[in-house]
Amino acid sequence: MMSKDTVSVARDRHTFFISLTLLLLLVLFPILRADRYYSDDVTRAITGFYGWDANGRHLAMLVMRLLQFNLRHLVDISPLPQIGAIAVLAATSVLMARRYRIESPWLAALIAFPLGAQPFFLENLSYRFDALGMSLALFTAWLPFMAAGAARKGWILGAIALFASLCFYQPALTAFLIFTLMELVVGQAEQRPPRELIRTLAGRVAQCIVAMAAYQLLIAPTIEDWLKEHSATIRGVGELWVLKRNALDFYGYMAGAFNTHWLRWAGPLLLVMAAMPALLAFRYARQQRSRWGMVLWPAFGLLIPFLATLSITLPMLPLRNPVILPRVFMGVGALLCAGLICICCAIRAWGRSHRWVMACASLWALGMASFAAVYGNSLGAQKALEERVASTLSNDVAALAAEHPVHYILIDGSVGLAPVTERAAQEFPLIRTLIFPYLREADFHTSYYLRYYLSDTPELAREPGSQARVAAILAQACSAPVLMTRGNYAVRLVDDTVVATFPAGTPKGCS
Question: How much is the average pLDDT of 31-57?
Fold first, then answer.
């Protein structure tokens, strides 16, 4: 007869295997199949620049240096970091199953599935160089909850883990805030004493304050350039209006990411998740039979869904110029995962079957896997379009350079989205920010993307102090003859600069 520890180890292995398989096949495979350098990957793959320390992500840089055996310059070792990211997320599901005594490996895997499969996190997994660090940020944001019963030592280790999470990727702090609220709800389901719940909550708040203070003192002064601009916070009461503006921008962005059909499909389970803290709080208050508790706990239970939703963006609301992109919404996966855990613990407390929880979680997983497939196919279509256009454009530039001196290329307009990608974006507006063209005017990534095809012809708009010259060349291009017309663009030559106008026609600045 197997011991309890042996059964637990076997369950953990099964949970890890199932989680890893689900995430690899249903989420990561469509991204790997598309094989498109994503955002900063375009720059890092060609320059070999590490640079995470300038973004306050020192541990992310350390991990990548270790994977690269401390090479002087980065090289592309994908899909190793992305597979490592999936393995880290699978390990997180094992820890969740152990912490909240979820006996079924399939149920544990499905509950943790949203951490890596939720649509906003697909951007994080798309990065060939960043995916592992971002997943480790989620993992270390969860670690404090594994040391719940270890008193002072556990508190210290938890604070260190949260500090590490900030050094991997700062937005993972939102996951910690959501898991803190989840811990309170689960404690009510398990009928823990009120004093213990309050003490635990106070400990989590203290961990967060200590970790953020240490990060602000030790790491924040090293932040430079782009992130320094976007991490500046408000100063004084006179700028409180920024909080409202940011809240409207963040939640408006999330609300507009999906069409209403999908929101109606996801709505019932979201409502169940929102109602669960209040139901458990009323049950807890009734069984505790405390006069003040009969008011306090139900009121707090009604507030928890609002506080959890607010936690998705809470650390970013005081920023003067926050980044609103899918990769910062790591709290969405944490919120969905926390909601499923709360439902699971409530079902266990009520002595009911977990079958319908598994059915709901499976439906969520199917929807997320479906979106991941759409996203992967859209990535592949966009890559094919850009490769074809960039290859043709490089040949055109070479042909002109054989007859005229050509020192620069200038992109006017945008190649736009591929037809398949555009069709997907009409159904899922999130696609428009997950996938953006690499051939568009005055874009940081365009200048580096063109270096894959035109290594000796830089993009003029990204040259230092070129704004006035770009405006002058575009003005002259209005009257310059079209030398070549392709399906996606027209080519003109102004002095030593090739002007490629997307779509084929006159530059957009012309009357």
Answer: 95
